[in-house]
């Protein structure tokens, strides 16, 4: 009977994976499509690029706040109602953007959307780690869930562009809001309470021994040098990511590559991250999340050499391929290492905190890089600095030690 219960739990775990994948899939709409609305908004209202960008900054701030709150709530309560409320906020905030008449309205509505979107990564990644805690294919399950973001980027970028061309940006925002709500709300219905008790790290009705890892609370984990190291790595990789989201296309067109090819490369960056996200679990099962995280940081740093000396389209697409794979490896490793080091007790809150720190600092990346470009007339200095930051992150990740109870 005990074996039957364990088998049933494992079987339903794959339904959890599917639902969590659908939830992270919506991030492809939330984070990877703002650039498609960018020029339509600027052209209609005559806003500068800085003003339009401030809407995205408002979204990231809302996202960061929500990631902390919803991660903490998901550690303590049934995540289903948390996700449903997030669906409402994300859908309403995005849909209200169809009514925008001023920059402050855009900021406010995208902030609301960010409050809803904050749950769409920290909550599903912590849920799936609990469902597959100390089970085979745990890395694969997490890799599938986080690859939802990359596949969402591939799906939503052309869809949003098609809708804007056919129906205008206002109707597109309304349609996007409806899709945002429906995907998260329907997926939340599949979510069931985790079979792992966060306070004991034990599997319900299982004869598996409990973990020997210390019972890490949030306050205790925040003081651990290993948590600070993971946070540093997260900040640097998100800083680099936000730089690419805004400045990759301008840099490519400055090098003489056509706008069409440049925009296509940006979309493929998310697509190429998908195999990396899936491979991350397989690699981590063999060399650990720590080594996978270090490998991805070193790979992203080396890939930036192609941008530093960019001249031809093949160099741009080679960069997108290699950086996308390495970026994909990094995403599951960044959250998987938290579960491996600190257990299940406060996993959602710790994940939310790490993401929030990275998002808040990363939100200023486009402005800092733009300022540097204005000062020197190229992206070379910024690229070198970001390469050094990623190499530093790889070194830090490589040297992280699993925390012990006395930390």
Structure description:
It is a single chain. This protein is an all-alpha fold and 407 residues long. It has one domain (9-199, 213-399): Growth Hormone, Chain: A (Up-down Bundle). Helix content is 81%, strand content 1%. It contains 15 helices and 2 strands. It has helices at residues 2-25, 27-30, 34-45, 49-76, 79-96, 103-117, 119-131, 138-188, 218-222, 225-254, 259-308, 313-342, 347-362, 365-376, 380-399; strands at 196-197, 202-203. The protein has a two-stranded antiparallel sheet with strand order 1-2. Strand 1 (196-197) and strand 2 (202-203) form a beta hairpin. The model is unreliable at 1-9 and 197-213 (pLDDT under 50).
Distance N to C terminus: 41 Å
Tally of extended strands?
2
Order of helices and strands: HHHHHHHHEEHHHHHHH
Rg result: 21 Å
CATH structural fold name: Growth Hormone, Chain: A
CATH architecture: Up-down Bundle
| Largest pleated sheet | 2 strands, antiparallel
What's the number of domains?
Answer: 1
CATH superfamily: MFS general substrate transporter like domains
From the spread of the alpha carbons, the general shape counts as globular
Low-confidence stretches: 1-9, 197-213
Any descriptors?
407 residues, disordered N terminus, Growth Hormone, Chain: A, single chain, mainly alpha, globular
What topology emerges from the helices and strands here?
Elements: H1 2-25, H2 27-30, H3 34-45, H4 49-76, H5 79-96, H6 103-117, H7 119-131, H8 138-188, E1 196-197, E2 202-203, H9 218-222, H10 225-254, H11 259-308, H12 313-342, H13 347-362, H14 365-376, H15 380-399
């Amino acid at each position: 009977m005990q074996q039957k219960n364990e088998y049933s739990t494992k079987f339903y775990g794959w339904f959890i994976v599917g639902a969590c994948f659908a939830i992270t899939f919506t991030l492809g709409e939330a984070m990877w499509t703002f650039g498609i609305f960018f020029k339509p908004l600027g052209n209609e209202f005559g806003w500068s690029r800085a003003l339009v960008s401030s809407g995205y900054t408002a979204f990231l701030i809302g996202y960061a706040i929500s990631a902390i709150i919803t991660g903490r709530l998901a550690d303590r309560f049934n995540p289903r109602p948390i996700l449903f409320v997030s669906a409402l906020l994300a859908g309403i905030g995005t849909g209200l953007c169809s009514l925008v008449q001023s920059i402050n309205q855009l900021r406010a509505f995208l902030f609301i959307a960010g409050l809803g979107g904050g749950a769409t990564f920290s909550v599903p990644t912590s849920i799936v780690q609990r469902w597959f805690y100390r089970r085979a294919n745990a890395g694969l399950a997490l890799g599938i869930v986080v690859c939802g973001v990359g596949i969402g980027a591939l799906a939503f970028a052309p869809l949003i562009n098609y809708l804007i061309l056919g129906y205008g940006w206002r109707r597109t925002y309304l349609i996007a809001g409806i899709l945002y709500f429906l995907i998260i709300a329907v997926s939340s219905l599949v979510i069931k309470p985790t079979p792992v008790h966060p306070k004991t790290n034990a599997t319900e009705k299982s004869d598996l021994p409990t973990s020997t890892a210390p019972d890490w609370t949030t306050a205790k984990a925040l003081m651990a040098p290993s948590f600070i190291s993971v946070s540093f790595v997260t900040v640097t990789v998100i800083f680099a990511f936000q730089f690419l989201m805004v400045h990759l296309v301008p840099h490519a067109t400055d090098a003489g590559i056509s706008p069409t090819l440049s925009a296509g490369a940006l979309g493929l960056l998310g697509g190429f991250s998908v195999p990396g996200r899936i491979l991350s679990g397989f690699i981590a099962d063999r060399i650990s999340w720590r080594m996978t995280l270090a490998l991805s940081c070193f790979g992203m740093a080396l890939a930036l050499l192609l941008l530093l000396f960019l001249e031809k389209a093949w160099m741009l697409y080679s960069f997108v391929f290699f950086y996308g794979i390495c970026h994909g490896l990094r995403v599951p490793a960044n959250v998987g290492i938290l579960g491996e080091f600190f257990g299940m007790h406060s996993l959602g809150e710790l994940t939310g905190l790490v993401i929030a720190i990275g998002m808040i600092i990363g939100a200023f990346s486009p402005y800092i890089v733009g300022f540097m470009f204005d000062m020197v007339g190229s992206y070379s200095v910024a690229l070198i600095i970001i390469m050094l930051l990623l190499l530093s992150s790889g070194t830090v990740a490589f040297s992280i030690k699993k925390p012990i109870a006395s930390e």
